[in-house]
């Protein structure tokens, strides 16, 4: 049994479409525990740090523009194998390929507007939680 923490974020499209409650509900019902959450407007500087691994990709500019286009709902969740289980619940990156029943499968059709971000490893969870939250914002 591995108790982990992960960083999840409802992207600007999900916030605009009022999917925050639905998404929080899914992770709560699954049995994960919310450790911190906030609605924030990401700066360009934070967006570039968050997506640094994609800096050389042709869609990097579009990615930064989109993630800074409106508020996001940033969260830290804890639970058993939460990093990989949350990724399963999110569905494949491309909503055209994500299974029905997953968040992206149920709520999106567009790769660039795929509703939710979730850390993909222990190292990225630690890095992303540190980018978005101070220790005193987590319980
Ligand atoms: P992930 O969000 O499932 O971890 P990543 O490969 O880390 O997927 O990509 C980050 C985000 O970049 C994706 O969620 C998606 O919205 C966006 N993205 C990935 N590939 C493309 C692309 O080819 N064009 C536009 N946006 C893309």
UniProtKB/TrEMBL annotation:
**Compartments it resides in:** Cytoplasm
Annotated active site? 117 (pros-phosphohistidine intermediate)
PROSITE patterns registered for this protein in UniProt = NDPK, NDPK_LIKE
EC numbers listed for it are 2.7.4.6
Q: Which GO terms describe its molecular function?
A: nucleoside diphosphate kinase activity
Q: Which Pfam families match?
A: NDK
Q: Which cofactor does it need?
A: Mg(2+)
Q: Which residues bind ATP?
A: 11, 59, 87, 93, 104, 114
Stored CDD domains:
NDPk_I (cd04413)
Aminoacyl-tRNA synthetase: is it a keyword of this entry? no
Top EC group: transferase
- Report keywords, A-Z: ATP-binding, Cytoplasm, Kinase, Magnesium, Metal-binding, Nucleotide metabolism, Nucleotide-binding, Phosphoprotein, Transferase
Please give the catalytic activity noted in the UniProt record. Answer: a 2'-deoxyribonucleoside 5'-diphosphate + ATP = a 2'-deoxyribonucleoside 5'-triphosphate + ADP; a ribonucleoside 5'-diphosphate + ATP = a ribonucleoside 5'-triphosphate + ADP
Every copy of the Nucleoside diphosphate kinase-like domain together lies at 3-139
Please describe the quaternary structure of this protein.
Homotetramer.
The function of this protein is: Major role in the synthesis of nucleoside triphosphates other than ATP. The ATP gamma phosphate is transferred to the NDP beta phosphate via a ping-pong mechanism, using a phosphorylated active-site intermediate.
Q: Which family does it belong to?
A: Belongs to the NDK family.
Indicate what this protein is called per its UniProt record.
Answer: Nucleoside diphosphate kinase
Taxonomic lineage from the root: Bacteria, Bacillati, Bacillota, Bacilli, Bacillales
Gene name?
ndk
């Amino acid at each position: 049994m591995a108790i982990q923490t992960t960083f999840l974020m409802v992207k600007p499209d999900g916030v605009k479409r009022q999917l925050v409650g639905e998404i929080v509900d899914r992770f709560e019902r699954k049995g994960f525990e919310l450790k911190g959450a906030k609605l924030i407007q990401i700066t360009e500087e934070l967006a570039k740090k968050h997506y640094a691994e994609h800096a050389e990709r042709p869609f990097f500019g579009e990615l930064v523009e989109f993630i800074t286009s409106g508020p996001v709902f940033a969260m830290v969740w804890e639970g058993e194998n939460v990093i990989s289980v949350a990724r399963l619940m999110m569905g494949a990156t491309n909503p055209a390929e994500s299974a029905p029943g997953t968040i992206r499968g149920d709520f999106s059709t567009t790769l660039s507007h795929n509703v939710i971000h979730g850390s993909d490893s222990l190292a990225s969870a630690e890095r992303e939680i540190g980018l978005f939250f101070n220790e005193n914002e987590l319980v």
